[in-house]
């Protein structure tokens, strides 16, 4: 069973910039089906392109519908994002729960996002089968349109194979014998220079030094480098100015 890829449906969006930012959020997380219901300033909107920051493909293939019902006509599953239930009794999910459900569903999926100023109207929510509510601070529950889209898109993307952060090839940690040799090397140098004093505290000082040196996962190259530094410091100092 192939995983459903939701359409992002912006209902009566007001600002072209917000449409562009929503498109950018969508493409970041692998979504490109953008639908606009009665955008206030018409479509295309010249302000959307710059705000999309390269997500032009999403804007170019965006479809415009006069009503929400027409925008979701091909969707077997419709979700409405809203902070309030608005008197409509429907299942309520977090973005994470909704994403998990969407991945298990067959057929078209549409996710409704309301206009910036007031959100979805009751009649809009009535067309949905499930409500998505973002758990936010009840004393300040103001999310802008692009933020709401990015939260939902991100949760959906967790079930997808998208580009992963570049893995840095790390050298394996050095064998314990190399680490012990480095610690012994340093202790010998410090002992010759009178570092371990007073005598009753020597075990504690050495233990603290060992703890410090064993915190990093030194690899062999790092240990060789540090021992090279120590060996250089051990050498007798020569006068740089030869007479």
From TrEMBL:
Enzyme Commission (EC) number: 2.1.1.200
Family the UniProt entry places it in: Belongs to the class IV-like SAM-binding methyltransferase superfamily. RNA methyltransferase TrmH family.
Protein name according to UniProt: tRNA (cytidine/uridine-2'-O-)-methyltransferase TrmJ
Gene: trmJ
Function summary: Catalyzes the formation of 2'O-methylated cytidine (Cm32) or 2'O-methylated uridine (Um32) at position 32 in tRNA.
Assembly and binders: Homodimer.
Superkingdom to which the source organism belongs: Bacteria
Gene Ontology molecular function: any one: tRNA (cytidine(32)/uridine(32)-2'-O)-methyltransferase activity
